[in-house]
């Protein structure tokens, strides 16, 4: 019970900090190439908590793997990225490839988590989906870095709310769950 409370407090604090960073435009004070580093750094926090704190690991291990997979349905945010590209807010190199990839991962998460599958088949499906989803997310971060080097102003929309929640909250959370899923599926 204490671990569950600790996890909830951590996530609410993290979400509040991410909202504050967007509200106060803190990401605009960083070079655009720092966005992937921010994402990776923030993703390290829950991943390290999982690997270093036995109570957190026990809490995370008690979760059904399908819950972690279903969290990735939030990747339907890729639709919003495509809309913002159409409105000229995000560059094509990020919004279209990242948006379409995110949508595919979100769509794939639904049958992986919800289809009536035998345990061994579901495990295999989760492993395959997790590899694909993890690679897709890392490619989005590479794209962010590349665009940040070439034209940092193209990423301005990601430094203010609501899109600032992507590099400070959603992407790190999804990346951390990919790491946890890799750890849990490889232990089996």
Report on the architecture of this protein:
The protein is built from 8 helices and no strands. The protein has 188 residues and is an all-alpha fold. It is globular, with a radius of gyration of 17 Å. The model has no long low-confidence stretch (mean pLDDT 94).
Write the SSE topology.
Blueprint: H1 2-23, H2 34-52, H3 54-62, H4 65-70, H5 77-86, H6 92-114, H7 119-150, H8 165-187
Helix pairs in contact: 1-3, 2-3, 2-7, 2-8, 5-6, 6-7, 7-8
List keywords for this structure.
globular; 188 residues; mainly alpha; 8 helices; single chain
Ranges where pLDDT stays below 50 over 5 or more residues in a row are: none
Strand % is: under 5%
Shape: globular
What's the main sheet like?
none
The whole-angstrom Rg is: 17 Å
Total DSSP E strands:
0
Which bin fits the share of residues in helices? over 70%
Instruction: For the record, give the distance between the C-alpha atoms at the N and C termini, rounded to a whole number.
Output: 25 Å
Mean pLDDT: 94
Q: Structural class per helix/strand content?
A: mainly alpha
| Tally of contiguous helical segments | 8
- Elements, N to C (H/E): HHHHHHHH
Indicate how many domains the architecture comprises: 1
């Amino acid at each position: 019970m204490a671990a569950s409370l600790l996890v909830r407090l951590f996530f609410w604090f993290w979400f509040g900090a991410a909202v504050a960073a967007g509200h106060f435009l803190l990401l605009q004070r960083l070079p655009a190439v720092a966005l992937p580093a921010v994402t990776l750094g923030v993703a390290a926090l829950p991943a390290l908590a999982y690997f270093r704190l036995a109570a957190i690991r026990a809490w995370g291990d008690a979760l059904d793997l399908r819950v972690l997979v279903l969290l990735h349905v939030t990747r339907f945010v890729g639709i919003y990225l495509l809309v913002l590209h159409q409105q000229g807010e995000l560059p094509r190199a990020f919004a279209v490839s990242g948006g379409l990839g995110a949508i595919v991962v979100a769509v794939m998460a639904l049958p992986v988590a919800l289809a009536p599958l035998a345990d061994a088949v579901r495990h295999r499906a989760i492993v395959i989906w997790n590899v694909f989803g993890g690679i897709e997310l890392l490619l989005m971060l590479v794209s962010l870095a590349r665009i940040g080097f070439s034209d940092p102003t193209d990423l301005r929309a990601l430094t203010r709310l609501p899109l600032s929640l992507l590099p400070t909250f959603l992407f790190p959370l999804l990346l951390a769950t990919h790491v946890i899923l890799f750890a849990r599926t490889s232990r089996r």
